[in-house]
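User: Some background: our group keeps a shared notebook of sequences we're curious about, and every so often someone picks one and asks for a predicted structure to add to the entry. Today it's my turn. The entry only has the sequence so far, pasted here. Could you supply the structure so I can complete it?
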Amino acid sequence: MVVLTIGSFIGFAIFLIMIQLGTMQRWEEAFALQIIQSRTPSLTRMMHFFTNLGKAFPTVAIALLLFAFPSSRADLAPKTAVSIFIVSAAAYLIKRIVRRDRPIDHRLVEEKDHSFPSAHAATSAAMYGTIALNLEQLVPSAVIPMTLLAILLSFMIGFSRVYLGIHFLTDVIGGWLLGAGVAGLVTLLMNS
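Assistant: Of course. Here's the predicted structure to add to the notebook entry:
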């Protein structure tokens, strides 16, 4: 878990540097164009669903729901709440420091704040990642299916942001890396 945590933060730093240098811009624009050209009404509805799943209310509701289940061995609810709080604060601060503008063209949703990192991607990776990392202590047989579900949900929430035209792919990858790093760090610190 230490390697995952450190690797996630190093990966995040690399993406941050690449964004600041503008090395990914042409590639990101080409990727975004491919996504835009593949939009369909049914796929757009599905992407709206996943982007809404990553908003504050569902995230807080899932975190609060964890407090309803006895999880004394893993302290799952407090770890998840701490992860969500830390990653939300970190994403907010980083957005204000980096000040990366969102994509301009072809937005299907409007957002007012800056783009990097994607808070939806960061929060989903932190929340579902924390749950997956701590599930083994509660339900060992559920680790693999729940980890796959965590990855799928986090992927779909992040990808929906690119599909809807409100994030560049590197914003989302940076968010996932930040969220995974926070999930690992919180788990390591709260398990020690």
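Suggested note for the entry: Residues 2-17+44-191 form one domain. Helices lie at 2-21, 25-37, 41-53, 56-66, 76-98, 119-134, 143-163, 169-191.
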